[in-house]
């Protein structure tokens, strides 16, 4: 066996076969990642010495695949060299090429000395230098994160850990000094508190009090230098005011920076005396201003001490829905950006705008034969996508704000199209009645997201030679903008000439093309699209392998593009009433088909996948049943016995996919063709010899006609669509609800609820049906949390629909007033919210002449002001009825809160995130009946809501999945290595920050913890928390989970006060996101209660544990093992308080549950009974002592009683149990049995028997799952 050491842990490859099994069906025919490949990507690193002017030489660890440029980046980040930007690196006097890989440089080896040599400036270099200095000065300033620019985002973890995670050597206080720990949480965090403050969401970070180094740094009004000064080497002039109030004018010249003699009104470019010529601005300022020197040093020290994950840019912008009032300071770079470089010129590409289409397509064409090539390719694709998404977002905002000239300026604003920075923008309105048949503007609004889903699907199949457009959909200020990359040459020709495949008029005229059919044929299997014929205007049959609207255009670059992929997936018949078509009874029972806003409602890809898998199991069962009957027939002929074969027998005998292979072999061996034929017919397969289900996306498209000879086929396809629609209603919705009952799905807010729906292929338009289903479920009480989140999602989505059209009529100057008025009508208890028309600030002298440049779609500009709360809620109720077919019973916000148990703060969070509103962080009084909650000063910003494709790191993901599989089979070490490897590959593709890396780190931390490496667990989990805050948001449900895991590892490391702070933070966030009544809150409160028990805060501990007990009883049912455990935890605290009667009462409850659920003989029942005996003895002893005291007064001889403070080890053991981490010392024989048992269960699982999922995360019920996390002694 070869062992390969890679950075971050070895990876063992046992054999080719094994990795095949782990990886599952590898996409795009990738050969196995064999050993040679892996060696290629990770050569061993080496150390070089670096000598910069004015500093001691230092060592730097580098790797051979790094570029020279990456060393530049490191130097620009290091504390002692960060002020240099314009330099070259030289080895033995030779300048190194920036873009060369280190391994290609002759003579560069272990111990080489690289010299940093200052180079002369150019205008570009001088600008870069000033920009870099500005970034260093602002490096601790959070305003970029609040404003949502440059991929900055917030993180608050360091506020709660005081930076003492993991540096146990330097830690300020040791965990054992319990006296120092202040355990009392703020009042609003305690169980039962009704107050939900907003301000603690963003605690003040003491690092952010900016150290002022300079008062002003800006471009001088004397720019650009006149000709005669240019010839003296002047590049540009800067103007500064130091902290000491000294006004100075500085020349940037080719040799560096120096003071000149200009003032605000007189130009004198001669050097001042002394001129302090310095190559770096920092050196110059340090000589002039003592305050700058002192503060800049402190600032850089603090900057370097922050965790890198707090400052690395995220791949996509994350916006914060709350922000404090930030002072607006003078900032030359931001000012310059706003007017120059950002309008289409990207700073780092010399002299031109980026050709986005060329970049997006070229990266797709990169080689992908082996692992290093694939990594390079995926990294390039990901980078270009995230750059494109950022540029498209900026462009869309510029378009809506009216800062981009239309390419058809003569037309009405709704019909205008724009080009900016080589991106094409169109608005989501139905121009030229294109969508008239399909639902007008509603269809035009839905089409871009459908198209984006199509682009995502084709991108994931990744067929060589087939190209899609870069597509980003942006919702901003009530408008939907689609941003697309531009096909070369398309603007010069008419659309009719360019489309050589598909239809431009929804199927009236249709053309096809051999090359397109060949390319699309390769996508038809993975996307389940059936090749089919349609009739064109001449009644000729034309063959297609996609929907008719999908157009094929060959660009001037010779590439085959497909666009308009809005019908990649088949239509959803539940929302598409068709004359004379009858849906299946399951759908009809639920009141389908229903009229939708538009006719573009289609099924999700996840649903298609689930449906086909369901049909496959059915197919196998049918075939097996027939085979058994055949066999039985043969045997019965021999023995003249007749037996009745019931289908149930077949169901039991086929444990699903595991046996499918054997079955397939036996079908081939015997004469099974007839069997297969019958099974194929039964499940609607398009082939008669094998299982193959595909959909025809053109069925029921208005205007599409099919040839006579395909009538039967079309009939089959229609039936298949009806079955799929019925499958959604009769299987997927109940399975979602069942998953919530089993706590396999735990949505906490709107986003996680939507995700849970989507994973099961349920569109959000079914939300009303899902809620009705929950309402009729017998176990409705155990789904209260789910129902409440669903109602809140439904209401905020309806409000968002209304808000969208409301905003379109508002002109820019009235925006904050309009948004605050809307929020008042939506949430405030103040009955007659009156809008303040912003006429007060500026009154125009002349009556406004009719303006030409109206906002797109802008109607009457003051109509918004007449909205009243009762009217808004009427609209919300009718929107809920018409869109979701759900009846809300409420006339205002207070009734909603009352009837459905919602929180206003949660509704505010949901609507702000959905509509992109940013509000001032302060305490809002929603319930005052005398004044509205919001004023226009409270609305700080409106952000775009952006949808884009997320390119995947496929190899990394395979490693990650096989790692998870290994862990679930109990091979922890192998699992850990695979996941470490996945982490390396993820970093390789995504850079340092990404949602998937976050999941990887969380699992790694958990494995480290189980394998006993608490320190490593802490460090990985800290990264996971920081990353989750930065990439998902500071109060995203995943972030809350990460905080809980981190608290556990802190406790295990003896950092008790930090663990408590983290748990309190998690509880605050959870209260805000979903309120107290949620099953996850029980887990959180058990954690808090246990930690408090450990630090001997018994009364406080009881408040949390009793709350956990109540929630567990409600959501898991009073007989659940979780509840028994809760009783036991409460009993232990009472024991510590010496209140034995209460302790006994709780332990008895627990004992009864164990006895009934798992029987007398089970170890849990025995443990409980032992503990009961012990408590009884203690109670008796206490009673004796008390009696003794009563009898003999103070001179009684008292037996010393054992009052036990719990040991940390016992608290940790309980913490592990409730968090689903169980250590079992196992013998070798036990291990064998365990593995056999796991395999047996996995087969059971595959057969579709309802086994609890064997997931590593997620609290494990003690008895009904094998502990998956196993520690081998």
Automatic annotation (TrEMBL):
First-listed, main subcellular location of the protein, grouped into a coarse class: cytoplasm
Gene3D superfamilies recorded: Hypothetical protein (hspc210), Tetratricopeptide repeat domain
Superkingdom per UniProt: Eukaryota
Keywords in alphabetical order: Cytoplasm, RNA-binding
Listed GO CC annotations: cytoplasm
Molecular functions per Gene Ontology: mRNA binding
Cellular localization per UniProt: Cytoplasm; Cytoplasmic granule
GO BP term, pick one: mitochondrion organization
Clu domain sequence ranges: 334-576
Extent of Basic and acidic residues compositional bias: 13-23
Location of the region described as Disordered in the Swiss-Prot/TrEMBL record: 1-32, 166-201
Pfam families (alphabetical): CLU (PF13236), CLU_N (PF15044), eIF3_p135 (PF12807), TPR_12 (PF13424)
Record-linked CDD domains: CLU-central
Entry's family note: Belongs to the CLU family.
Known function: mRNA-binding protein involved in proper cytoplasmic distribution of mitochondria. Specifically binds mRNAs of nuclear-encoded mitochondrial proteins in the cytoplasm and regulates transport or translation of these transcripts close to mitochondria, playing a role in mitochondrial biogenesis.
Protein name: Clustered mitochondria protein homolog
Species for this entry: Oncorhynchus tshawytscha
């Amino acid at each position: 066996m070869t062992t390969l050491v890679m950075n971050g842990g070895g990876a063992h490859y046992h054999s080719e076969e094994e990795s095949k099994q782990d990886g599952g069906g590898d996409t795009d025919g990738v050969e196995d990642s064999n050993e040679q490949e892996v060696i290629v990507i990770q050569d061993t690193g080496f150390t070089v010495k670096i000598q910069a002017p004015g500093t001691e030489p230092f060592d730097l660890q580098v790797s051979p695949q790094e570029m020279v440029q990456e060393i530049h980046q490191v130097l620009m980040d290091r504390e002692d060299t960060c002020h240099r930007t314009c330099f070259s690196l030289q080895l033995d006097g030779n300048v190194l090429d920036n873009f060369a890989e280190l391994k290609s440089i002759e003579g560069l080896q272990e111990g080489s000395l690289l010299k940093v040599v200052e180079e002369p400036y150019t205008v570009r270099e001088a600008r870069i230098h000033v920009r870099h200095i500005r970034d260093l000065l602002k490096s601790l300033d959070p305003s970029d994160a609040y404003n949502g620019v440059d991929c900055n985002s917030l993180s608050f973890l360091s506020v709660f850990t005081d930076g003492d995670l993991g540096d146990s050597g330097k830690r300020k206080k040791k965990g054992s000094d319990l006296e120092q720990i202040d355990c009392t949480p703020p009042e609003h965090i305690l169980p039962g508190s009704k107050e939900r403050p907003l301000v603690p969401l963003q605690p003040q970070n003491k690092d952010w009090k900016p150290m002022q180094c300079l008062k002003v740094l800006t471009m001088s009004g004397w720019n650009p230098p006149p000709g005669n000064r240019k010839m003296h080497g002047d590049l540009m002039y800067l103007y500064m005011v130091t902290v000491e109030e000294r006004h100075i004018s500085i020349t940037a010249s080719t040799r560096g920076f120096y003071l000149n003699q200009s003032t605000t009104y007189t130009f004198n470019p001669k050097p001042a005396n002394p001129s302090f010529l310095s190559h770096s601005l920092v050196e110059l300022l340090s000589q002039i201003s003592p305050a700058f020197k002192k503060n800049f040093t402190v600032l850089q020290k603090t900057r370097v001490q922050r965790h890198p994950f707090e400052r690395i840019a995220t791949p996509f912008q994350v916006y914060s829905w709350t922000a404090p009032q930030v002072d607006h300071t003078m900032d030359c770079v931001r000012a310059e950006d706003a007017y120059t470089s950002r309008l289409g010129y990207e700073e780092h590409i010399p002299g031109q705008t980026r050709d986005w289409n060329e970049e997006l397509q070229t990266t797709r064409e990169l080689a992908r034969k082996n692992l290093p090539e694939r990594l390079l390719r995926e990294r390039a694709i990901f980078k270009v996508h995230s750059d494109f998404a950022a540029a498209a977002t900026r462009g869309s905002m510029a378009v809506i704000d009216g800062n981009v000239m239309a390419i058809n300026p003569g037309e009405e604003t709704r019909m205008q199209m724009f080009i900016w920075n080589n991106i094409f923008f169109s608005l989501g309105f139905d121009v030229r009645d294109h969508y008239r048949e399909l639902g007008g503007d509603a269809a035009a609004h839905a089409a871009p997201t459908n198209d984006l889903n199509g682009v995502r699907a084709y991108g994931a199949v990744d067929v060589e030679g087939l190209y899609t457009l870069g597509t980003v959909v942006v919702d901003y200020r009530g408008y939907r903008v689609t941003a697309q990359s531009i096909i070369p040459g398309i603007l010069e020709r008419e659309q009719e000439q360019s489309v050589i495949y598909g239809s431009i008029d929804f199927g009236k005229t249709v053309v096809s093309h051999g090359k397109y059919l060949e390319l699309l044929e390769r996508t038809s299997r993975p996307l389940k699209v059936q090749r089919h014929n349609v009739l064109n205007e001449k009644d000729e049959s034309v063959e297609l392998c996609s929907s008719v609207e999908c157009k094929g255009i060959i660009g001037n670059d010779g590439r085959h593009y497909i666009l308009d992929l809005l019908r990649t997936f088949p239509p959803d018949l539940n929302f598409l009433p068709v004359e004379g078509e009858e849906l299946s009874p399951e759908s009809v029972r639920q009141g389908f088909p229903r009229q939708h806003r538009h006719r573009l409602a289609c099924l999700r890809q996840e649903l298609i996948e689930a449906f086909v898998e369901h049909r496959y199991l059915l197919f196998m069962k049918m075939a097996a049943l027939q085979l058994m009957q055949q066999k039985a027939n043969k045997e019965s002929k021999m023995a003249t016995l007749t037996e009745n074969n019931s289908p149930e027998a077949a169901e039991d005998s086929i444990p699903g996919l595991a046996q499918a292979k054997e079955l397939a072999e036996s079908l081939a061996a015997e004469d099974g063709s007839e069997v297969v034929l019958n099974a194929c017919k039964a499940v609607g397969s398009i082939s008669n010899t094998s299982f193959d289900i595909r959909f025809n996306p053109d069925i029921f498209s208005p205007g599409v006609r099919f040839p006579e000879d395909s009538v039967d086929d079309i009939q089959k396809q229609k039936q298949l669509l009806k079955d799929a629609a019925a499958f959604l209603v009769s299987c997927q919705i109940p399975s979602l609800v069942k998953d919530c009952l089993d706590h396999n799905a735990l949505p906490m807010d709107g986003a996680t609820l939507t995700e849970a729906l989507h994973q099961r292929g349920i569109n959000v338009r079914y939300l009303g049906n899902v809620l009705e289903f929950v309402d009729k479920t017998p176990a409705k009480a155990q789904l209260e949390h789910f129902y409440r989140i669903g109602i809140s999602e439904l209401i905020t989505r309806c409000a968002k629909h209304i808000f969208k059209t409301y905003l379109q009529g508002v002109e820019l100057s009235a925006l904050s007033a309009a948004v605050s008025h809307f929020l008042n009508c939506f949430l405030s208890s103040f009955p007659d919210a009156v809008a303040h028309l912003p006429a007060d600030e500026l009154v125009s002298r002349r009556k406004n002449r009719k303006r030409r440049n109206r906002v797109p779609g802008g109607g009457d500009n003051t109509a918004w002001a007449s909205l009243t709360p009762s009217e808004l809620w009427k609209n919300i109720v009718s929107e809920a009825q018409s869109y979701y077919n759900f009846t809300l019973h409420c006339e205002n916000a207070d009734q909603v809160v009352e009837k459905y148990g919602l929180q206003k703060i949660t509704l505010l969070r949901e609507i702000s995130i959905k509509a992109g509103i940013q509000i001032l962080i302060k305490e809002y009084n929603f319930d005052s009946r005398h004044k509205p909650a919001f004023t226009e000063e409270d609305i700080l910003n409106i952000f775009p809501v952006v949808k884009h494709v997320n390119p995947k790191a496929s190899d990394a993901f395979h490693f990650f999945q096989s790692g998870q599989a290994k862990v679930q089979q109990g091979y922890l070490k192998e699992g850990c290595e695979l996941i470490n490897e996945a982490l390396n590959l993820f970093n390789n593709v995504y850079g340092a920050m990404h949602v998937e890396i976050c999941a990887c780190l969380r699992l790694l931390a958990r494995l480290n913890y189980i394998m006993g490496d608490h320190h490593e667990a802490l460090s990985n989990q800290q990264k996971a928390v920081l990353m989750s805050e930065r990439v998902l948001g500071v109060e995203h449900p995943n972030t809350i989970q990460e905080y809980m895991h981190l608290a556990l590892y802190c406790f295990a490391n003896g950092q008790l006060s930090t663990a408590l702070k983290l748990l309190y933070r998690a509880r605050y966030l959870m209260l805000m996101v979903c309120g107290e009544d949620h099953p996850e809150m029980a887990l959180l409160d058990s954690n808090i209660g246990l930690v408090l028990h450990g630090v001997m805060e018994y009364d406080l501990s009881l408040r949390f544990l009793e709350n956990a007990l109540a929630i567990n009883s409600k959501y898991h049912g009073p007989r659940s093992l979780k509840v028994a455990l809760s009783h036991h935890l409460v009993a232990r605290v009472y024991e510590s308080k010496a209140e034995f009667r209460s302790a006994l009462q709780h332990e008895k409850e627990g004992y009864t549950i164990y006895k009934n659920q798992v029987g007398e003989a089970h170890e849990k029942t025995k443990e409980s009974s032992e503990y009961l005996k012990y408590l009884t003895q203690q109670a008796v002893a206490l009673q004796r002592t008390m009696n003794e005291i009563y009898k003999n007064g103070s001179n009684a001889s008292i037996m010393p009683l054992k009052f036990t403070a719990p040991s940390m080890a016992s608290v940790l053991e309980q913490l592990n149990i409730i968090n689903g981490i169980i250590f079992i010392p196992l013998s070798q024989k036990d291990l064998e049995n365990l593995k056999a048992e796991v395999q047996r269960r996995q087969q059971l699982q595959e057969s579709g028997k309802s086994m609890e999922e064997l997931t590593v995360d997620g609290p494990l019920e003690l008895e009904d799952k094998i502990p998956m996390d196993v520690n081998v002694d």
